[in-house]
Amino acid sequence: MRPAREFAAETLHAWGVTCRHDEVLLCVSELATNALLHGVPPGRGYRLRMLRFEGTVRVEVHDSGGGRPCIAGRQPRAEGGRGLLLVAAVADRWGTVPRVPGKVVWCEFAVGAVGAGGPPAGL
Length: 123
Description:
Blueprint: H1 2-15, H2 21-39, E1 47-53, E2 56-63, H3 83-90, E3 93-98, E4 103-110, E5 121-122
Antiparallel strand pairs: 1-2, 1-5, 2-4, 3-4
Helix pairs in contact: 1-2, 2-3
């Protein structure tokens, strides 16, 4: 997930967004990991897209796999399965939308006014 986190950090810096930096990077890492583990068929990748609009940063991870992600109940000693739980706890909003093929899992962060928006960034 290092390339995804580096891309997100560079994008936030270019946009002048300094608040919630660590929270955004955590969610980028979790969503990208989930895409690789659960949403990407063999031989395919995922797309990370970040958007900035008045007071909000939106992170989207597009994959071509089936299914809809959900927060699953896990045993306290389980080593995995908490990615979306973390995203739900850290981001202001999150959700999924279908696409053909696959889905988009997104989350948003209120970051205050960040000035005039530029084009979306994508990896």
